[in-house]
Design brief:
single chain, 310 residues, two-stranded antiparallel ribbon, 12 strands, globular
């Protein structure tokens, strides 16, 4: 008989608590829409139900633009366990160009009107892998422009970095007085980049995209425990069977193709990540770091609470 999600969750440790620092819960996939095509009914309520049952205590919904951030805050306001970031993703920084002051004012207003729900500035940073969305000079200018919000509202940064570590580190180092800590999420950089980021007082966020190669695993194994956080970046960045860390995954959930999925199927959608899968990231990290999984889980939970919920 094929196992369902409910039975897998029942076997999970009830002693572990998780905080997913990066969940894109406003993505259309949780409304059943994939590449503009409706495949099934909205099921975010079921995704959240599975998350809470699997040990998630809090989730931070990622805001990637002023519009996205408004949606993230609106969703966060529906549940005491949901929180949000507010900021502009590097690939969306063209949104600033027409009227930078007005756009920043919009971010400020959103933060000020939702202080109990907004826990970080972001997602902001640099992405040199997708310059076709926003050119380098624009990214650099408006990443630095957003940093003032960190000190202004005493909020940490939720940072994005793709093939741009040197510039990210230089800008953060030059603006230390504007920054109240933060995390480089979905980190997939080198050991040197990781060490330089930590020297700035930052944390490192790990998800499935951070664990795609043997080199990634080597770097992740060396992150100081007191600087480590975990996330899913769902519905993206799942741990795939082709990833070298997959052999360390113990908790596996049944999936069905999106075309055959129904809200009451008690399965996940194949290829769509969910916050409850955060346990897989933890399992890989515990194995490659040769650490007790419960001790590591508690340390990560405490790191996250201290940064975002102090």
């Amino acid at each position: 008989m094929k196992e369902n999600i409910s039975s897998v969750i029942k076997r999970m440790s009830y002693f572990r608590k998780y905080i997913d620092i990066g969940a894109n819960l406003t993505d259309e996939m949780y409304q059943g829409v994939y590449h503009g095509s409706k495949k099934h009914e909205p099921d975010l309520h079921e995704v959240l139900k599975r998350s809470w049952a699997g040990g998630l205590e809090k989730m931070i919904i990622t805001g990637g633009s002023l519009t996205d951030s408004r949606q993230a805050v609106e969703l966060a306001s529906t549940n005491s366990q949901l929180f949000s970031t507010v900021g502009c993703h590097p690939t969306r920084c063209n949104d600033f160009v027409e009227n930078p002051n007005l756009y920043l004012r919009g971010l400020r207003d959103l933060i000020e009107e939702n202080r109990s729900k907004v826990v970080a500035i972001g997602e902001c940073g640099l992405d040199y892998e997708r310059l076709h969305f926003c050119e380098k000079d624009v990214q650099l200018k408006y990443f630095e422009y957003q940093l003032q919000l960190s000190s202004e509202y005493n909020l940490p940064l939720f940072l994005h970095c793709r093939a741009a570590a040197d510039d990210l580190i230089e800008i953060l180092g030059r603006n230390k007085e504007c920054v109240v800590g933060g995390v480089v999420h979905s980190f997939d950089g080198t050991q040197k980049a990781m060490e330089d980021i930590i020297k700035l007082g930052m944390h490192i966020g790990i998800n499935g995209c951070s664990l795609r190669t043997k080199e990634n695993l080597e770097v992740a194994s060396k992150i100081p425990q007191d600087r480590l956080m975990i996330e899913t970046d769902s519905p993206w960045c799942e741990v795939k069977p082709t990833h070298p860390g997959y052999l360390h995954v113990v908790t596996k959930f049944p999936t069905v193709k999106k075309e055959k999925y129904s809200v009451d199927s008690d399965s996940q959608v194949k290829g769509r990540n969910e916050p409850v899968n955060i346990v897989q990231v933890l399992e890989i990290l515990a194995a490659i770091r040769k650490e007790n999984i419960d001790v590591l889980a508690e340390a990560i939970y405490n790191n996250t609470n201290k940064l975002f919920f102090k």
